[in-house]
Design brief:
Blueprint (H helix, E strand, L loop, with lengths): L6 E3 L5 H8 L13 H14 E6 L3 E7 L15 E9 L8 H15 L4 E7 L4 H8 L3 E2 L9 E5 L10 E10 L4
Parallel strand pairs: 4-5
Antiparallel strand pairs: 1-2, 2-3, 3-4, 5-8, 6-8, 7-8
Length: 178
């Protein structure tokens, strides 16, 4: 069976599956202040401004169309673009290539639907998705002087042992039409 046959688009009635997989972020530094209402709001936002793809009920990937997430990025150069918000895989299914399958699917989806660019934001250091993106032809976004464009993001924290800010970088891939 082809792996793409295991990918489907989630609908409103799939919220419990989304929540189950999205909760794989529990225990991560930014998660501790999230409420159930916040998870519902995120799911509704994804359904309104983009799509949530699911792979075999084991992993999800949510995207938004033409969503500007920073004032410092060169959106005018990117044409019609996709923002990859998250890739989440249940703990017991990690390291089995599910994230790669989802990212490959997104790249194909972008080509088929005539998008020009895909981009995402991730930790400046130690990011698995950044490494995966680089393997798939994404490039770190830099300013005109060649410096990496970074952004300081703040998250509400309940734990004093975790910093309330994080430095993120952006990666993008230009989809070249042939």
């Amino acid at each position: 069976m082809q792996k793409n046959n295991l990918i489907r688009i989630l609908k409103e009635e799939d919220y419990l599956l989304f929540e189950k997989i999205y909760r794989c972020f529990e225990g991560k530094p930014f998660w501790e202040a999230w409420t159930d209402e916040m998870i519902v709001a995120v799911f509704e936002e994804f359904l309104t401004t983009g799509l949530v793809f699911c792979y075999d009920n084991k992993g999800i990937m949510d995207i938004q169309y033409n969503q500007k997430k920073s004032d410092t990025l060169p959106y005018d150069d990117w044409g019609n673009f996709i923002y990859l918000s998250d890739i989440a895989v249940l703990e017991e299914y990690r390291c089995q290539g599910i994230g790669t399958i989802l990212l490959d699917y997104l790249i194909d989806f972008g080509y088929i639907n005539n998008f020009d660019t895909i981009y995402f934001r991730t930790n400046l250091e130690g990011s698995m998705v950044a490494n995966l993106g680089l393997q798939k032809g994404f490039e770190v976004v830099r300013d005109t002087s060649g410096e990496i464009i970074t952004e300081k993001v703040s998250f509400p924290r309940n734990r004093l042992d975790v910093p309330d800010t994080d430095i993120r970088q952006y990666l993008c891939k230009t989809l070249i039409k042939e």
